[in-house]
Amino acid sequence: MNITVLGLGFVGLTTSLGFAKKGFKTYGFDINESRLKSLKKHHVPFFEPHLKEILIETIGNSFLLDVPFEDAIKNSDAIFLCVGTPEKRDGSADLTYLFNGIEQILSVPTEKFQVLITKSTVPPSTLSKEVIPFVNQILAENSNRKIGFASNPEFLREGYCWEDFIRPDRVVIGVEDEKSKEILDIVYKPFGAPIHYVNYNTAEFIKYLSNTLLSTMISYANEMSMIAGAIGDIETKRAFQILHEDKRWYGDPAGIRSYVYPGCGYGGYCLPKDTAALVSMAEKNGYSPSMLKANLEVNKGIKPFLVEQVVAEVEPNASLGILGLSFKPNSDDVRITPPKEIIEQLLEKGYSNIYAYDPISNEEFKTHYPDLPITYMDTLDQLYEKAECMVLLTGWDEFKEKKGLLQQKKVFDFRYTL
Ligand SMILES: NC(=O)c1ccc[n+]([C@@H]2O[C@H](COP(=O)([O-])OP(=O)(O)OC[C@H]3O[C@@H](n4cnc5c(N)ncnc54)[C@H](O)[C@@H]3O)[C@@H](O)[C@H]2O)c1
Ligand SMILES: O=c1ccn([C@@H]2O[C@H](COP(=O)(O)OP(=O)(O)O[C@H]3O[C@H](CO)[C@@H](O)[C@H](O)[C@H]3O)[C@@H](O)[C@H]2O)c(=O)[nH]1
């Protein structure tokens, strides 16, 4: 199995050295001549621990920098694109280096099957909507070329490139054909990490899921420091230290991860009112907290977004079964419960046969919202009998336990419970 890597920056050099260390013959290329020159002199042109030692160990053996481009491409099974994808003026990703690299690769004639792998960070749908059509257009003139595709986003951090690459938490591979998958399987097996095969868009999305969570947490922390500053007399540093003592940050798996899951919005007596109250207090003190305001907006917007999914697939005269009424499982609290808003929106959309079942909150819900024209069912089996399709809004264990039964009908699992 031979590998070519295009782009020898933080990601490309680390990737090349990682594969070379695992024993694959790896050809490295960069359009930056001075970068290549220094690498050939065993000098890593940026600060990154460990890379120099591995460079010295592998160069001329499994890591090759002076093989002609054409020979390397002809001899490669997997070609990794690790070029830069910088930000354009309008915020979109500049894919110029990527497309130039692909053109160079395709200019080499060969009949060998090869996988073209985007390791550079590219927005979801880039491979399916831009790269593959681009390649197909070029190949229309050279039908002998056999190319497979894969997306293999990289999660390494600068400063820890080597450790992160050689001992990855997980490897994500977006691949949609068997031959390419087999090649990537061989390439990544020696790393001993979990390998997740997904489709192209999902692989690309996972990379952004990761980076935007990080950037959102950082901006959240910064916004909170600005709110604290506006209100005054708050020990911001201590406040954050104490925040971090919440046990949900620790453990394996850390409990905090149950907050990073999509669903139908947060509800209950605390998160909605407290988020709104801090927005209001910050504004009174002259600071407009844009993230917290956006947070409230998103919590509102998720409900019509989900209701539209039902509307798109279910006729209004169908009987709908609502699974769960409380704001979260193991509680009968129905104050500001997302199911209430969702049921109201379904009623507005013309769904008039709504049946509902909650393991413990039917009475509570009926008492709080007596005017909602819905029928309560005493058991899950009764609801299942009545409903043509179901909308799961609270992630009760009972629903998980009866997954087999529930899934015999259409279920909109808006808590990702099943
Ligand atoms: N830096 C990180 O920590 C990191 C981590 C994960 C993912 N990424 C992503 O990986 C990609 C590369 O990032 P980087 O930090 O390594 O960038 P970088 O700028 O350090 O390196 C990119 C290299 O590609 C070279 N190049 C451009 N066009 C080429 C071509 N046609 N053929 C050969 N070489 C070519 C450039 O000369 C440059 O040396 C980006 O999409 C980035 O978003 C970066
Ligand atoms: O509490 C924090 C933590 C970080 N930062 C800043 O966040 C930025 C990014 O930091 P870090 O994530 O350590 O750096 P990167 O090397 O850019 O790595 C990120 O970006 C890579 C490229 O996509 C991903 O592969 C990594 O998983 C992801 O962590 C830096 O400016 C840090 O100073 C803060 O301001 N506050």
From TrEMBL:
It is an enzyme of class 1 (oxidoreductase). Its EC number is 1.1.1.22. Substrate binds at F155, L156, R157, E158, K207, Y259, V260, Y261, P262, G263, G267, K328. Pathway: Nucleotide-sugar biosynthesis; UDP-alpha-D-glucuronate biosynthesis; UDP-alpha-D-glucuronate from UDP-alpha-D-glucose: step 1/1. InterPro entries: 6-PGluconate_DH-like_C_sf, NAD(P)-bd_dom_sf, UDP-Glc/GDP-Man, UDP-Glc/GDP-Man_DH_C, UDP-Glc/GDP-Man_DH_C_sf, UDP-Glc/GDP-Man_DH_dimer, UDP-Glc/GDP-Man_DH_N, UDPglc_DH_bac. Residues 321-417 form the UDP-glucose/GDP-mannose dehydrogenase C-terminal domain. It catalyses: UDP-alpha-D-glucose + 2 NAD(+) + H2O = UDP-alpha-D-glucuronate + 2 NADH + 3 H(+). GO terms for biological process: polysaccharide biosynthetic process; UDP-glucuronate biosynthetic process. Pfam families: UDPG_MGDP_dh, UDPG_MGDP_dh_C, UDPG_MGDP_dh_N. The active site is at C270 (nucleophile). NAD(+) binds at D30, R35, T85, T121, E158, K273, R335. GO terms for molecular function: NAD binding; UDP-glucose 6-dehydrogenase activity. Keywords: NAD, Oxidoreductase. Signal peptide: none annotated. Belongs to the UDP-glucose/GDP-mannose dehydrogenase family. NCBIfam families: NDP-sugDHase. This is UDP-glucose 6-dehydrogenase. It comes from Algoriphagus iocasae.
